[in-house]
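Q: Give me the 3D complex with adenosine-5'-diphosphate.
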Amino acid sequence: MFKKILIANRGEIACRVIRTARKLGILTVAVYSDADRDALHVTMADEAVYLGPPPSRESYLVVERTIDAALRTGAQAIHPGYGFLSENAGFCRTCNENNLVFIGPPATAIEAMGSKSAAKNIMELAGVPLVPGYHGEDQEPSILKKASDEMGYPVLLKATAGGGGKGMRQVWAADEFAEALASAKREALGSFGDDTMLVEKYLIQPRHVEVQVFCDQHGGAVYLAERDCSVQRRHQKVIEEAPAPGVTDALRQQMGVAAIRAARAINYQGAGTVEFLLDQDESFYFMEMNTRLQVEHPVTEMITGQDLVEWQLRVADGEELPLTQEQIRITGHALEARIYAEDPANDFLPASGTLGFLQPPEESDNVRVDSGVLQGDEVSVYYDPMIAKLIVWDENRDKALGRLTKALTEYRISGMATNINFLYNLLCCEAFKRAEVDTGFIEKHYDEIFLSDQQDISQGVALAALYLVLEQAKNAEKRATHLPDPWSPWNSTGGWRLNQAHVNHFELLFQEQQYLVTIEQLGRADGVRYLIRIGDRTVQARGKIENDEVHADLDGHRIRASVGRHESSYSLYTQDSALQFKVIEADLGDEDAGQGAGGLNAPMNGTVVELTATEGGQVKKGETLMIMEAMKMEHTIGAPADGKVIQFYYQPGDLVDGGAELLDFEVDS
Ligand code: ADP
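A: Here is the predicted complex, encoded as structure tokens.
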């Protein structure tokens, strides 16, 4: 076995490879750019070599520097991970020329799959089923059009050099053909410098099902079941699972055999994935072959109990495949969710920033977190914004799904927008629970995923308000037990007020809509009850908080939600959905007293504009102590009672996190 390998990648996949190498006693060399000097993969590796500036073109994609790093450190082989140089035939050749083993297929196999139409020709000859279509050399528009007319619409135009969904156009009718062809060609030429096109029958709502194959250098070839990766946004996968729901043993075998035929046709070696479109009638068609380890390989590992990186290393070192086809068993069900720094509500726009707080769910035999970042790390604009992969396993799909939704509610990330709540809502869709997945899933269930249902939102607003008031009572109780005067009215947690009810106002931001909520505490003869008013709707509520869960009774409807707090925003995870909200302005005291003691915390992320009181100077109740600015609005922080500011914890210009304590205030005795 190799003594030392270099990993020509970064992030979670570099860490993933290092873990297996370490298990096998292989030393590792990491590479890094300026942006990754302190990255996890660098600290995990035994050695690390600097490549260059942050842009990948100047660091992770520079072949000569990567090869030089391997030669300098005495590495015998290079693992390319996925992305970057992993499907670069030239890099593979350069490795071989320098006596370095490329942990992947031969350069010829990478080349054979490089062009979609050339790949189709090879697969056609090998008897692998293809989507009906035209992938010939004659690029005359009239020839392409004739092929489409004969096939019948809709058709899909694809750039043969394409990738990442670029140079692809659906054509729904003959009269749209010319324009779609011209625009697909323009995009292909701009992206790949090649506007050669192929045409395929456009399948309506197919599933994306891919087969994991493995080949050794001795003619051995096996398949390790399949993965369903139908749930995609922008033609990119977000949820993957194995095995593919509803795929029978017979279909699995047919697809597996076809995938191996595809791999053999190009003398494949190592780990590869043959992607198929699976039609509603169980017909399946070759789409493309990825000649590397896939992002979603862990779901296959979970159901087969195998370490695919270990297989890669063994096969690259010349060993035979660890198992025969008959020895490969699948057990239970695995699901993977990709956690991205992105804003789903804003067309999944990638986000960047510092991971101010990062707490993944606890790992176990059932829950695995593959990540390459730590709290305090930067998610930079230079690389893929994936923060982690959350993978779960259980004996069946329902149980695995339960584990995944639970684990998502335990993920705490602050510092940037993430897709966690989007994933949670997606997994809560009844159609997903029934495994009715296809490549149009997100568009089809858009309203459900993005909670366009007003009924859900007003229920969520009531739940949020109840949670805030319960949380406030709990905090007051905590404070009271720590303060010298437990009898002070500022520490009162009960509903008693002279001649009036205890009333709170909250201004909440839900789905970019502002809601003014009034919550009134009613008699406590049979426990505290609340009357919640949202516009002209009123809700009778009661509830309690226990272990980060709020138990609520809203007009007799009992619900429970886990609560996650990310800076100034909160997430309530109910059975059906994740509701995210922000408190814009909280009047945390009762109506009469102005801002209560709790009001001395920042209402949300913002900047301190001015300190209007002086430390040690006497102030009257309600007098402004400091001014903050948040979301382009000014917020005044008032004195909760007559007293004095002992100390301001922030100065004008300082950035303050939502919820942070702003100052130390002493109430006159
Ligand atoms: P790229 O290489 O640009 O990612 P692919 O050929 O891999 O493009 O296709 C990406 C996605 O587009 C597939 O996962 C599938 O959702 C959809 N797709 C591709 N071909 C077809 C087709 N013939 N009919 C319907 N959907 C398709």
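A quick observation: The chain has five domains: 4-103, 132-201, 208-226+240-451, 458-583, 597-667.
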